[in-house]
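$ run holo --ligand "iron/sulfur cluster" --emit tokens
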Amino acid sequence: MRGQELDGCIIRDVGQHLEIVTYSHSRLATFTQCALKYRFRYVDDIPTQRESIEAFAGKRVHNVIEKLYRDLWDGRLNRNDELRDFYAFRWEEEWHQHVHVARAGETVDDHFSYGLDCIDNFYRENHPFNQSRTVMLEEKVEFNLDPGGWRRFQGYIDRVASRPDGTYEIHDYKTSRSRRSPGTSELRQLSMYQVGVQSMHPEVRNVELVSHFLCTGEVFRRQQAQTDLVKIVQDAHQLIDDIESERWFRANVTPLCNWCDPESGKASGRTQRFFRTGFHQI
Ligand code: SF4
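-- output --
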């Protein structure tokens, strides 16, 4: 690997790599949020044990939705109180000391209760869960972004379901409180999943993208024209070009810094200047 000494920092010359790189929605979103955070996680590969309470609670809610649909495959419909109990069980089972509450004034109990509210909303809005037939659950999709296969994309789809009219629904369950409708990033995520499903299963023609915002119970549905999908893949390529030609990986200080792991900056040994000037406060 070729490296470059710049302002006391070794910057990897990622643009010169001749290796297959697999991108994901979170990888692209991390670069868009903060190039330095991207470098810590994906270039320097600094391990972190920290997990935000939002991510932890979101995973437990996803555990519940997966159980609900897996049990339906076996002909069993869980009651709401059974799912709440399962949520509490998985919360306790998965809890670890590195779960981090970033927002001042919030407690672990607040987030536990918020997850329960998400489950109640989902149950109330979707019971008896017979609107479509589940065909994929928490399944990995992976496909080539370019004909040569140098850039790949992978993701885990929450659920794919088929309707009697032949339409396939790609479902995504959001537990975020800050976003209450799909934005550009969510649309890119689901559109890339559609490209992945259709490349793995060419028989899937009609697709609807379904975003569930569990904090309110609202559901957003959208069908993407082929031209929209082509444009989204082109935009992803452009973003990856930017990532692979990046040299400076500058910090982008925003309120989201509160969710960053300060150990990453220390472990890199490359951010002391930012700490001293107060520019990179974490
Ligand atoms: S603390 Fe903020 S500026 Fe620093 S790496 Fe994290 S997100 Fe970027």
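-- notes --
The first strand starts at residue 3 and ends at 6.
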